[in-house]
């Protein structure tokens, strides 16, 4: 392949370079090509079978490793210990917020912690508290707390609860 350099060193260098690129830009994709290049380097060291067969070996091993990894990860996906880690809106479900811009015609703004969010829900005056019931992207879905309290005050048979 290169003058004065054994083919297996080129495959090992390619495999290490691909592994390093995977570390720099993780995506669980280049690592499978790195594995194929390293195995091709090992096969080239053990059996000196020439460049054309080494390329066929690399392509074949790449396809096998990518397909095997995809199938394995499909059957046994990586489960996060915190699935809402990068889902800020989902983490806020159940929290209360203060309406800072009245929710009129289904849209307004609420304050959660030290930030303001666009909110959708029933008409609510500024200064009232609402509960976050969900999100649609960066828009929070809210419901007035008074409606929640009213719903709890009604018994299952529809009669008002005594209290």
Beta fraction: 15-25%
By helix and strand content, what is the structural category?
alpha+beta
Total separate domains: 2
Number of helices: 5
* Overall 3D shape: rod-shaped
What is the ordering of alpha helices and beta strands? HHHHEEEEEH
Which whole number gives the mean pLDDT? 84
Cross-sheet strand order for the largest sheet: 1-2-3-5-4
According to DSSP, the number of beta strands is 5
**From the alpha-carbon coordinates, what is the Rg to the nearest angstrom?**
29 Å
Short description, anyone?
This protein has 163 residues and is of the alpha+beta class.
Describe the structure.
This protein has helices at residues 7-24, 30-46, 51-75, 88-91, 145-153, and strands at residues 96-104, 107-112, 115-120, 129-136, 139-144. It has five helices and five strands, in the order ααααβββββα. Strands 1-2-3-5-4 form a five-stranded mixed barrel. It has 163 residues and is α+β, with helices and mostly antiparallel strands. It is rod-shaped and about 80 Å long. The longest helix has 25 residues, at 51-75. α2 (30-46) packs across α3. The N and C termini lie far apart (87 Å). The protein has two domains: 7-75, no CATH class; 88-153, Beta Barrel (OB fold (Dihydrolipoamide Acetyltransferase, E2P)).
